Amino acid sequence: MRRTLLALVVLLCPAFANAQGRLFARPCASPPCPADAICERPLPMPTSVRCSGRIERVSSAVQVQLVDRVLRYEVSEIFRNAGGAVAEADYVFPLPAGAAFEDLKLSINGELVSGETMNADKARGIYEEIVRKMRDPALVEWMGSGLLRARIFPIAPGEEKTVVVRFQSVAVREGDALRIDYRRGSDALSSRFTLRYQRNDAFGDPSSPTHTLRSGDEGRMHFVEARGSGSDVSVLIPMRRADVASMSVLTHRLGNDPGFAMITVTPPSNAAARSTPRDLTFVVDVSGSMQGRKLEQAKAAGVALLETLRPADRFRLIDFSTDVRSFSTDWSIATPDNVRAAKRYLDALRAEGSTNISEALTTALQTTARNDGWREEHRLPLVVFVTDGEPTVGERNPDAIAALAARLRGDARVFTVGVGTGVNAALVEQLALQGHGTAHFVRDDESVEASVSLLARRLSSPVLTDVRIVSSGVRLTSLLPVGPIDVFAGQDLVVLARYEGTGDAAVRLEGRSPTGPVTWSTRAHFVDQDRSNPFVARLWAAQRIGWLAAEKRHSGSTRELDDEIRSLGERFGIPTEFSSYLVVEPGMTSASGNTRGDLANSGAPSLASASAPLARAEAQFEAARSSAKQRDARSVSALDDIANAANATRAVGTRRFALVNSVWTDARYVTTMRTIAVRPYSAMYFALMRRLPELQAAFALGDRVIVAGRTVALALKTDGGERVDDAQISTIVRDW
After folding, report:
1. What distance in Å separates the CA atoms of residue 507 and residue 317, rounded to the nearest whole number?
2. Are 582 and 659 in contact (CB under 8 A)?
């Protein structure tokens, strides 16, 4: 077979290592293109030759090694010809801005292949031509300004080609952290990302605003693996000295509205050595409904809590059904003998009787408030409350119980675990929110022990209490989480906020430690306009919706609450009881009978959509559980696990699209908007993307897409416009 020209395009994007290349099969084998152009069309093939090659990606693995401040990328991709004939292919691979070209090596099946670079103008022209000819919208999000070429053999039937690309770049510092970025493109599910660096006291525990991380040690090296389907991977590695915390600030801002900020705080490595003593109270429901597996798991959960106790801690065990009982009438010091006796007490518990929630809370919180010993040496009071039912004895009104708990709580942090759909989910949620803790919801077929064990580990070593974030130079508003915050060793504190003002500013954390007041600070730049980090806005919106939904369940619906929940859900593509990703024309009804704007097959766990087959109690349970997850979401990966309950939807930055009549339609789109039709891959198509870069990822969804701006929408259509002048572009940008 003839040797085919492989165009290896190096597209330099401003913020991301745009990796995960693509192979494009040509219709038939053909003579090679000229060295300085993309072929307009393949030359005719003899009629005896059949063209039935089909190129498939088998895998894509990214290995990144951090050495000093240099990132060494190695991207290995495997493609297979699944067809019955030889297939010719072009391979396109983007690289990040600042990548070291002189250190680039392209290996194809073990053979190094040389390449050549091109200037930006020529690169852009060839890039756009590739997009037009190959009709692959996923390339659109890789718009850039550089080019490299190489050559490759055709792929025989059943043959696999392994392409390995190596390049280097410098890790960007983001506040007190190193930031490692990588764009996997739209085919993220077939990609693996692993970062390795030498274990060093100067580095803190890695975190990610985009993905769930799995990490561990391999000899002297530490590895971090990103898990999740998001296309953009961002990893933050705190840089810290032995006794100094690290802080980083990510910002996102469009238009004149307040910007979004994500503040990540990593405690110093030696923080656990001087953690705040705890007064830990475990309250467990032993009513008749807890009989069997639920009670056994609740006992195991209590044991998990006891095993986190340190010699300076104190504890109480309270079990309740019709009556309320305690392991001890006073605090028990966490000596080995006391802990062993407490485990025996838990083991002997039996399930019977009714559910006296009000008396159990009174016993737990009144004792905490009445005891002044923790104030003398600054102790942190924590209450973990586990129940599976409605109050059936004593005070039965959930609002009255919540009000009682609020009066008695003092400074105690209350963490609740609701077990099964029969629990009063609104009460469980409200107790935690008023108590500045977190609510957890466990279905009957899930593990209570696993949920409480995870909570126990999180609460094991408090290093700062009563934390607040303040700034000078800009104004931070709408901070989440709400109220006093505690920082625990081995965990990052993540605070999301809106900000007003721009420029350099000081961000401070103020709190209380075992040795007195503490202040940690950093300098950050708050941008006026910045399209990067769109996940920051979406995470803030998700948490905000979680808080608003809980407030609505507690205080009732108001027009202001409903409007804000609806607006945030539609703008950021987040499931709510109002926002649907199924776009319905005015006057049409969805499968559930709701008109446009109501929840329609979105998969959101809400009362509005749950009349059948879910019962009201189960709908409340699922709604509260979803809100709790939204309030606790710390990464786009976690958020997408919630949002992807909706069928046929895609998250693109802060937007979510639904597949409606074969068109990817922006959830923000309203049919009354002025809608401009654009022909895919036309001069107008590329001109709009250059002026509105956020269109790149949206247009990557395909040839039939509707994207909504403020008052104007753009629709990709085969009969759309092909050319546009500067005045028209300026008008579109103004209305966008």
Report:
1. 40
2. no
The number of helices, as runs of H, and strands, as runs of E, in the chain is 15, 37
- Output DSSP code: residue 32: P
Q: Which domains does the chain have, with CATH numbers?
A: 4-234 (2.60.40), 240-273+462-532 (2.60.40.1230), 276-458 (3.40.50.410), 669-736 (no CATH)
Q: Mean pLDDT of all residues in the chain?
A: 76
| Distance of alpha carbon 538 from alpha carbon 669, whole angstroms | 18
**How many other C-beta atoms lie within 10 A of the C-beta of residue 159?**
15
Nearest to 532 by CA among 159, 191, 97, 108: 97
* Pairing, β 674-678 against β 712-716: parallel
Place of tokens 């572009």: 729
Calpha distance 287→523 (Å, rounded)? 53
8/105 Cα distance (integer angstroms): 12
Amino acid letter, 606: S
C-beta separation of 667 from 584 below 8 A: no
Separation between Cα atoms, residue 209 and residue 232, nearest integer Å: 10
Question: How do beta strands 493-500 and 475-480 pair?
Answer: antiparallel
pLDDT in tens, 178-200: 888 887 655 544 578 999 998 87
Query: Containing H/E element for 301?
Result: helix 293-306
Which H helix or E strand runs over 623?
Answer: helix 616-632
Q: Identity (one letter) of the amino acid at 663?
A: V
Query: What is residue 92's three-state secondary structure?
Result: strand
Angle 555-558-563 from CA coordinates, rounded to 5°:
125
Alpha-carbon separation of residue 110 from 76, 162, 713, 715 (angstroms): 11, 8, 48, 45
**Is residue 398 reached through a cis peptide bond, with omega within 30 degrees of 0 on the bond before it?**
no
Q: Which residue in the block uniquely carries the two structure tokens 């699922």?
A: 622
CA atoms within 13 A on the CB side of 31: 6
Beta strands, E only, 450-590: 462-472, 475-480, 485-488, 493-500, 503-513, 516-526
φ and ψ of 541, to 5 deg: -65, -40
pLDDT confidence tier of residue 131, bands split at 50, 70 and 90 = low
Write out the two tokens for 133.
Answer: 């000819």
Tell me the two tokens of residue 660.
Answer: 């409606």
Residue 45 DSSP class = P
**Mind listing the pLDDT tens digit for each residue in 8-30?**
333 322 233 344 555 555 554 44
Q: Are 332 and 353 in contact (CB under 8 A)?
A: no
pLDDT in tens, 462-508: 888 999 999 999 999 999 998 889 988 767 788 999 999 999 999 99
